[in-house]
Amino acid sequence: QVQLVESGGGSVQAGDSLRLSCAASGRMLAMSWFRQAPGKEREFVALVAWNGATTYYAESVEGRFTISQDNAKNTVYLQMNNLKPEDTAVYYCAGGTHYSLKPREYTSWGQGTQVTVSA
Fold first, then answer.
1. What angle do CA 82, 95, 99 make, to 5 degrees?
2. Each residue of 51-63: b (16+ CB within 10 Å) or e?
3. DSSP state of 103
4. Does the pLDDT of residue 1 top 90, yes or no?
Protein backbone atom coordinates (compact mmCIF):
# COMPACT_ATOMS: atom_id res chain seq x y z
CA GLN A 1 0.00 0.00 0.00
CA VAL A 2 1.22 3.48 -0.85
CA GLN A 3 2.19 5.54 2.18
CA LEU A 4 1.27 9.24 2.23
CA VAL A 5 2.73 11.94 4.46
CA GLU A 6 1.31 15.47 4.55
CA SER A 7 3.07 18.62 5.69
CA GLY A 8 2.64 22.37 5.50
CA GLY A 9 -0.35 23.08 7.70
CA GLY A 10 -0.45 25.91 10.19
CA SER A 11 -2.33 28.87 11.61
CA VAL A 12 -2.81 31.93 9.42
CA GLN A 13 -4.96 35.01 9.06
CA ALA A 14 -7.79 35.35 6.57
CA GLY A 15 -6.44 36.30 3.18
CA ASP A 16 -3.10 34.54 3.73
CA SER A 17 -1.71 31.61 1.76
CA LEU A 18 -0.41 28.15 2.64
CA ARG A 19 1.01 25.30 0.60
CA LEU A 20 0.39 21.73 1.66
CA SER A 21 2.59 18.88 0.48
CA CYS A 22 1.88 15.17 0.27
CA ALA A 23 4.85 12.87 -0.19
CA ALA A 24 3.92 9.45 -1.56
CA SER A 25 5.91 6.23 -1.44
CA GLY A 26 4.57 5.29 -4.86
CA ARG A 27 2.41 6.51 -7.71
CA MET A 28 -1.36 6.27 -7.80
CA LEU A 29 -3.78 7.11 -10.60
CA ALA A 30 -5.71 9.74 -8.68
CA MET A 31 -4.43 11.93 -5.88
CA SER A 32 -6.82 14.11 -3.95
CA TRP A 33 -7.09 16.40 -1.00
CA PHE A 34 -9.99 16.15 1.42
CA ARG A 35 -10.71 18.14 4.56
CA GLN A 36 -12.68 17.59 7.70
CA ALA A 37 -13.84 20.30 10.08
CA PRO A 38 -14.94 19.51 13.65
CA GLY A 39 -18.37 17.93 13.69
CA LYS A 40 -18.57 17.69 9.92
CA GLU A 41 -18.08 14.93 7.38
CA ARG A 42 -14.91 14.64 5.36
CA GLU A 43 -15.33 16.59 2.14
CA PHE A 44 -13.60 16.61 -1.22
CA VAL A 45 -11.34 19.57 -1.98
CA ALA A 46 -9.31 18.86 -5.12
CA LEU A 47 -8.12 16.05 -7.38
CA VAL A 48 -5.23 15.62 -9.80
CA ALA A 49 -4.52 12.80 -12.23
CA TRP A 50 -1.14 11.10 -12.00
CA ASN A 51 0.03 12.82 -15.18
CA GLY A 52 -1.28 16.22 -14.11
CA ALA A 53 -3.52 16.45 -17.16
CA THR A 54 -6.75 16.45 -15.18
CA THR A 55 -7.66 18.51 -12.15
CA TYR A 56 -10.98 19.06 -10.42
CA TYR A 57 -11.99 21.31 -7.55
CA ALA A 58 -14.80 21.68 -5.09
CA GLU A 59 -16.85 24.76 -5.84
CA SER A 60 -15.95 26.24 -2.46
CA VAL A 61 -12.23 26.42 -3.34
CA GLU A 62 -12.33 26.92 -7.11
CA GLY A 63 -10.18 29.89 -8.08
CA ARG A 64 -8.42 30.03 -4.71
CA PHE A 65 -6.76 26.60 -4.44
CA THR A 66 -4.47 24.92 -6.95
CA ILE A 67 -3.53 21.25 -6.91
CA SER A 68 -0.40 20.07 -8.68
CA GLN A 69 1.96 17.13 -8.71
CA ASP A 70 5.65 16.51 -9.23
CA ASN A 71 6.10 12.98 -10.50
CA ALA A 72 9.86 13.11 -10.10
CA LYS A 73 9.35 13.62 -6.38
CA ASN A 74 6.11 11.61 -6.03
CA THR A 75 4.66 14.65 -4.31
CA VAL A 76 1.31 16.37 -4.61
CA TYR A 77 0.80 19.97 -3.58
CA LEU A 78 -2.18 22.09 -2.61
CA GLN A 79 -1.56 25.81 -2.93
CA MET A 80 -4.19 27.64 -0.94
CA ASN A 81 -4.61 31.36 -1.49
CA ASN A 82 -7.01 33.89 -0.01
CA LEU A 83 -7.79 31.58 2.87
CA LYS A 84 -11.04 32.05 4.74
CA PRO A 85 -12.06 31.02 8.28
CA GLU A 86 -14.38 28.41 6.76
CA ASP A 87 -11.32 26.69 5.28
CA THR A 88 -10.30 25.68 8.82
CA ALA A 89 -10.05 21.89 8.95
CA VAL A 90 -7.73 18.93 9.03
CA TYR A 91 -6.55 18.38 5.47
CA TYR A 92 -5.92 14.85 4.25
CA CYS A 93 -4.09 13.59 1.21
CA ALA A 94 -5.60 10.49 -0.42
CA GLY A 95 -4.60 8.16 -3.22
CA GLY A 96 -6.84 5.95 -5.30
CA THR A 97 -7.04 3.77 -8.38
CA HIS A 98 -9.75 5.81 -10.07
CA TYR A 99 -11.10 9.34 -10.01
CA SER A 100 -13.71 9.96 -7.36
CA LEU A 101 -15.04 12.68 -5.08
CA LYS A 102 -15.98 10.13 -2.44
CA PRO A 103 -13.61 9.38 0.45
CA ARG A 104 -14.56 5.70 0.56
CA GLU A 105 -13.17 5.21 -2.96
CA TYR A 106 -9.63 5.98 -1.82
CA THR A 107 -7.34 3.28 -0.49
CA SER A 108 -4.40 5.28 0.86
CA TRP A 109 -4.60 8.16 3.34
CA GLY A 110 -2.16 10.43 5.07
CA GLN A 111 -2.33 11.30 8.75
CA GLY A 112 -3.72 14.78 8.13
CA THR A 113 -2.41 18.28 8.73
CA GLN A 114 -4.26 21.04 10.57
CA VAL A 115 -5.08 24.31 8.84
CA THR A 116 -6.52 27.07 11.00
CA VAL A 117 -7.63 30.38 9.53
CA SER A 118 -8.59 33.20 11.86
CA ALA A 119 -10.63 36.23 10.87
1. 85
2. eeeeebbbeebee
3. G
4. no
* Single-letter code of the amino acid located at 46: A
Cα 21 from Cα 46, distance rounded (Å): 13
Characterize 71-97 residue by residue with b for buried, 16 or more Cβ atoms within 10 angstroms of its Cβ, and e for exposed: eeebbbbbebeebeeebbbbbbbbbbe
Chain centroid, CA 46 distance in Å: 6
Longest dimension (CA), the chain: 39
Considering only residues 53 and 2, tell me which one the structure prediction assigns the higher pLDDT: 2
Gap between the Cα atoms of 119 and 105, Å rounded: 34
Give me the pLDDT at residue 52, please. 79
DSSP string computed for 61-86: TTTTEEEEEETTTTEEEEEE-S--GG
pLDDT of residue 13: 98
Spatial CB neighbours of 29, under 8 Å, sequence gap ≥ 6:
49, 50, 96, 97, 98, 99
